[in-house]
Amino acid sequence: MDERTDGISRRQLSILLFVSALSPLIRQTPGMAVQSAGSAIWLSALLALVPLPLAGLLLGRLLRKRVPGEGLGGVLLRVFGRAGGTAAVLLFTAWTVFYAGFVLRAGADRFVTAVYPGSRPWLFMAVMAALCVPACLGRLKTLGRCAEIALPLLTLVFLFVFLFSLPGLDAANLAPVSRVSAADAARGALWLLSTMSVLLLLAFLSDRTEPGPLAAPFNRAFLPLGALTALLCVTVVATFGAKLAAEMHYPFFVMIRCIRIFRLLERVEALIVAQWVTTDFLLLGALLQSAAGNLTLCFPKLGARRGAVALSSLALALVSGALCAPTAFSLRELSRTLIPIASASAAGVLVLALFVGLVRKKI
Questions:
Q1: In the beta sheet, which residues pair with residue 32?
Q2: pTM
Q3: pLDDT, tens digit, for every residue of 169-205?
Q4: Nearest Cα to Cα of residue 15 among 286, 334, 229
Q5: Do 328 and 106 touch, CB atoms closer than 8 A?
């Protein structure tokens, strides 16, 4: 890959996907899944591991015949034709911008709930949007390198949290699985898969990824995320029990608040929550870069003004974030309804694209 181009390696793509997906993972896990699965949430996490390699293979198959500079958007244009493909790409773009607004709103709510109770979320949204301006105007390669730097730090954070949470775990909270709870666990697995479906939106960054097969790079992000999801579910539910965890908005951060380190540092949640500014930043930057790339693909005349297109996408995301959920309650309802439905629909479109592409011999 030419270092002078705005592109990333397949390794950087995997790391960017993984680090970016940590933002919704921490916010929504175990979330709705534990309300469905109860103490069998650990089984939900194991069941969610099964489809993840299939998702990687699906994306890899769609992109198998891509030419340099062509990504998932270009494949959709090839499979569905110019008119149908443009419509599909624009729908994905609209959802990407809206989801970026949801990330802004959810990130602000997380700070208000976990660190600064009683504060207004709009200030946090504005600050995060301002931080994302360089990501909009900069190169995708820069985001890839930032993800490489952030990965070891975030790994240490997880190791720290899980290590110091061990004394508070109670295996009795992970009850044996019955036939009824197994069905609940299957429903819980769908919620967990919905949380990780943001990676489908970031797959459009494949147009600026070095040539080569992408099934393995996608799976290098999917599979560790699935394993981390299982570990989070087990740790949170073993700490609080399924009933109490289901009533918490952010059980992971409540668990962090309970951590004590040899009486040297009584509260560590503010320090750790601040680390998630990095994941929010990388996720938002990747989403906005993806949206800008899709728009310039559909409207080539915008190619010379990609930075302005990305800033416009950021402005639209900020507006949608401010309007989509005026209250914390409406934000949680949005997480419960529209977000998983739209995520499932996005996955369905890609499955349809694979079927149509195979029939038309376009992939």
A1: none
A2: 0.91
A3: 888 787 666 665 677 788 888 888 888 888 899 999 9
A4: 286
A5: no
Give the residue, 226 or 167, on which the prediction is more confident. Answer: 226
Q: Which amino acid is at 93?
A: T
Q: At what angle do helices 121-131 and 306-324 cross, to 10 degrees?
A: 170
Q: Please state, in angstroms and rounded to a whole number, the distance separating the CA atoms of residues 11 and 33.
A: 31
SS3 8: strand
Residue for token pair 């992970």? 174
What are the residue ranges of helices labelled H in 29-132?
Answer: 31-37, 41-49, 51-62, 72-114, 121-131
CA distance 74 to 207: 8
What six digits make up the tokens of 300? Answer: 């080539």
Give the C-alpha distances (Å, rounded to integers) separating 120 from 116, 156, 263, 329: 9, 31, 32, 14
**Across-strand partners of 261?**
265
What does residue 309 show for φ and ψ, rounded to 5 degrees?
A: -65, -45
Select from 63, 7, 5, 2 the least CA-distant residue to 208: 7
317 and 100 Cβ atoms separated by less than 8 Å? yes
Tokens matching residue 311: 């800033």
- HEC assignment per residue over 169-205: CCHHHCCCCCHHHHHHHHHHHHHHHHHHCHHHHHHHH
Q: Do residues 79 and 301 lie in contact, with contact meaning Cβ atoms separated by under 8 Å?
A: no
Q: Which of 86, 110, 118, 92 is nearest to 342 (CA)?
A: 92
Residue labelled with tokens 């974030």: 321
Three-state DSSP class for 209? strand
CB distance 214 to 363 below 8 Å: no
Q: Is the dihedral of CA 305, 70, 294, 198 positive or negative?
A: negative
Whose structure tokens read 């349809």? Answer: 352
A 10 A CB-CB count for 67 gives 8
| CA count, 13 A, side-chain hemisphere, 132 | 30
Token output for 132: 């994302």
Alpha-carbon Rg of the chain, whole angstroms?
20
| Tens digits of residue pLDDT in 62-110 | 999 888 888 999 999 999 999 999 999 999 999 999 999 999 999 888 8
What 8-state DSSP symbol labels residue 265? B
